[in-house]
Design brief:
This protein is α/β, with parallel strands linked by helices. Helix 4 crosses helix 10. The protein is globular and about 65 Å long. The chain starts with a helix and ends with a strand. GO terms for molecular function: 1,4-alpha-oligoglucan phosphorylase activity; RNA binding; structural constituent of ribosome; thymidine phosphorylase activity. Catalyzes phosphorolysis of the pyrimidine nucleosides uridine, thymidine and 2'-deoxyuridine with the formation of the corresponding pyrimidine base and ribose-1-phosphate.
């Protein structure tokens, strides 16, 4: 078998068989296929596409390129959730304790942020002492005993995806439905859960900008999950506005805690509760309405916030942060971003807002960049809200004073105004289920 022939076959629009895909993944990961040939095949796939079978094969082979997490020691159905990434998206921090409080084990491996979107692991590490680099044995033990654990992805979880994604990132071959779906789902399959709910974001702050493309991606991922024996559903949610009011690691953890105390922003709680209920439903705890009631009861009774406290304590964190937010890292500088207009906020370019938060220190431009856990943006006003000249739209937090001016310049570009109240889209835009 020759890589040249595989490239030529896909270039001409033909379907690759399982052995050709396996050859590419295995030999590329072994260092026997040079980057220029791998890049050529990725571009051919980008332009010609892959069918459902090819995509499922690519996903499964990438998943098996490294460790496959075995959760069989944990009794019952194991649940997982994945978001395609957004700004202010801290839903995992809310959903996981709720689902665990309802009796479904949550064994979640999460990633770090890169670019304008944040990562769950970075957020959790804003909690003093919280350890995301726990061993596989401790991870399993915690889920068995408490029903919940959230850890960083191991270096050998779907290593083929990591190597291929790095090449896609520099060859303009990222934005292809089959390649995106296989990248996400290979890690989910390797993580070992039985039931998966996918939060597919759409809009200016999302990876997929159009609703049509977001639904296509959701359908592709659900098919992969179902075709590989994992019950999978997807919810397509709006990301044209930051989710909640907080953008930045410590700020987002605090907002998630407030949501679990039943005092969070309406939009954040609506999306988190919907995802939690959908996950409970596919875990066969009842009808959707019954599962929504379970979610509300878990929060209102205080069981969900106690589960978060248990998670923090088990992984070495200071659980007192739940009631004392001063224990989080504090920013040396706070700056209020003031409205220069009277009227309504017409729209927010959410990805630019994410970049503004990154500029303040809340994110990383490269994998080697360090994070300022105190940095970020706390909004007072969002799309649809009325503002008067001189009103505070947002407060900026950072430990680098020189970053305030460029962050404000980005907010100037991101926030647009109008005279009349704009129409706001629903938060929940589609639900995808193969059943």
């Amino acid at each position: 078998m020759r890589m040249y022939d595989i490239i030529e076959k896909k270039r001409d629009g033909f379907e690759l068989d399982s052995e050709e895909i396996r050859y590419f993944i295995t030999e590329y990961c072994s260092g026997n296929i040079p980057d220029y040939q791998a890049a050529a095949l990725l571009m051919a796939i980008f332009l010609r596409g892959m069918n459902e079978r090819e995509t499922a094969d690519l996903t499964t082979i990438m998943a098996h390129s490294g460790d496959m997490v075995d959760l069989s020691e944990i009794p019952g159905i194991k649940a997982d959730k994945h978001s395609t990434g957004g700004v202010g998206d801290k839903t995992t921090l809310i959903l996981a304790p709720i689902v665990a409080a309802c009796g479904i084990p949550v064994a979640k491996m999460s990633g770090r942020g890169l670019g304008h979107t944040g990562g769950t692991i970075d957020k959790l590490e804003a909690i003093p002492g919280f350890n995301t680099a726990i061993s596989r044995e401790v991870f399993i033990k915690n889920v068995k005993e408490t029903g919940i654990s959230i850890a960083g992805q191991t270096g050998n979880l779907a290593p083929a995806d990591k190597k291929i994604y790095a090449l896609r990132d520099v060859t303009a071959t990222v934005n292809n439905i089959s390649l995106i779906a296989s990248s996400i789902m290979s890690k989910k399959l390797a993580s070992g859960a039985d039931r998966i709910v996918l939060d597919v974001k759409t809009g200016s702050g999302a990876f997929m900008k159009s609703l049509e493309d977001s639904v296509k991606l959701a359908r592709e991922m659900v098919k992969i999950g179902e075709n590989t024996g994992r019950r999978t559903v997807a919810v397509v949610t709006d990301m044209d506005i930051p989710l909640g009011y907080a953008v930045g690691n410590s700020l987002e953890i605090i907002e998630a805690i407030e949501a679990l105390k039943n005092k969070g922003p309406r939009d954040l709680m609506e999306v988190s509760f919907e995802l939690a209920a959908r996950l409970l439903e596919i875990c066969e705890l009842g009808t959707l309405d019954e599962c929504k009631q379970m979610v509300r009861e878990a929060v209102e009774s205080g069981r969900a916030i106690l589960k978060l406290e248990e998670l923090i304590e088990r992984q070495g964190g200071n659980k007192r942060v739940i009631n004392d937010y001063s224990l989080f890292p504090q920013a040396a500088y706070k700056y209020d971003y003031i409205s220069q207009y009277d009227g309504y906020i017409a729209s927010m370019k959410t990805d630019t807002i994410g970049v503004a938060s990154l500029e303040l220190g809340a994110g990383r431009e490269t994998k080697e960049s360090s994070i300022d856990y105190a940095a970020g943006i706390l909004f007072r006003k969002k799309t649809g809200d009325h503002v008067e000249k001189g009103d505070i739209i947002a407060s900026l937090y950072t430990n680098k004073q020189e970053k305030i001016s460029p962050a404000c310049a980005l907010l100037d570009k991101a926030i647009h105004f109008c005279e009349s109240k704009p129409e706001i889209k629903p938060l929940i835009l589609a639900y995808i289920d193969n059943k």
